[in-house]
Amino acid sequence: MAIDWARGANYPLVIKPDEHSNTYSTTFSETFSSAKKVIGDFFNCDTKGIVIENFVSGRGFSAYFITDGFNAFLLDFVETENNRFASLGAGFLDDEKRARVVEIASQTIGALAKTENNYVGILGMDFILGDDNVLYALEYNPFFDALDVELFLGAFDINWAKLFESAVLGTLKDEFSAIKKYDGNFATQIDEKGEVHFAKGRTLNEARENLLEEGLAWKF
Asked: How far is 111 from 63, CA to CA, in rounded Å?
């Protein structure tokens, strides 16, 4: 069925497993023959299901929230480059786009609460701001990505154990009116060994330069 659908699709396509996997990754296909091979490879490796999406050109970013099942508190936005470098803020987003992302998160939490499937914990949301200036929601994640864990641990002045406890107890709104972040700009990068390095600076470029001092290379 997937191959039949891909035969009549508009290319390029993005093909990926419908569950997170350390073995299989997102694949970009520009032709039907390429897509057919990718689909076959996924199912030959016992992948239970796949997602096929239209390719969207633009800038990717994530938004992270902490929720107690009723309220979604924005932690921050993260921009990631080539799955190797991440920085807090996503400064290319205007206020309208940021407000829209928060609205989507609140609607998601509210819809789950209405069906008594209250979601508690970390809510990560991946987006692309397309070249057409339209927001495209890609997926939800119940965790911080590897690069992002170090970003949030290093950038926020917060008792994380207390924060998660209040989310579980449903007292998030009462106990946390604001989530404090240190001054400055923050970045992480993963090296060839898979180790994540954290740096901060007065500007994002300074944070990048501080990563360079550790012998890491980065590209725009």
From this structure: 19
Q: What is the pLDDT of residues 77-99, one digit of tens each?
A: 999 887 788 999 999 999 999 99
Residues 63, 8 share a domain: no
* Contact of 59 with 92, CB cutoff 8 Å: yes
- Give the total number of structural domains in the chain: 2
Global pTM exceeds 0.85: no
Same domain, 95 and 116: yes
Sheet of 120-130, strand order? 135-141, 120-130, 58-68, 72-81, 85-88, 185-190, 196-201
Q: Are residues 76 and 97 part of one domain?
A: yes
Look up the domain containing 79 and give its range. Answer: 58-212
- Neighbour-count burial for 150-187, b at 16+ CB within 10 Å, e otherwise: bbbeebbebeeeebbebbeeeebeeebeeeebeeebbb
- The closest alpha carbon to 90, from 154, 148, 20, belongs to 148
66 and 145 share one domain: yes
**pLDDT score of 14 more than 60:** yes
Q: How many residues does this entry show for the chain? A: 220
Residues 40 and 132 in one domain: no
Q: Is 219 inside any structural domain?
A: no
Cis ω for the linkage preceding 12 (within 30 of 0): yes
Q: Please name which of 87, 60, 93, 104 lies closest in space to residue 201, comparing C-alpha atoms.
A: 87
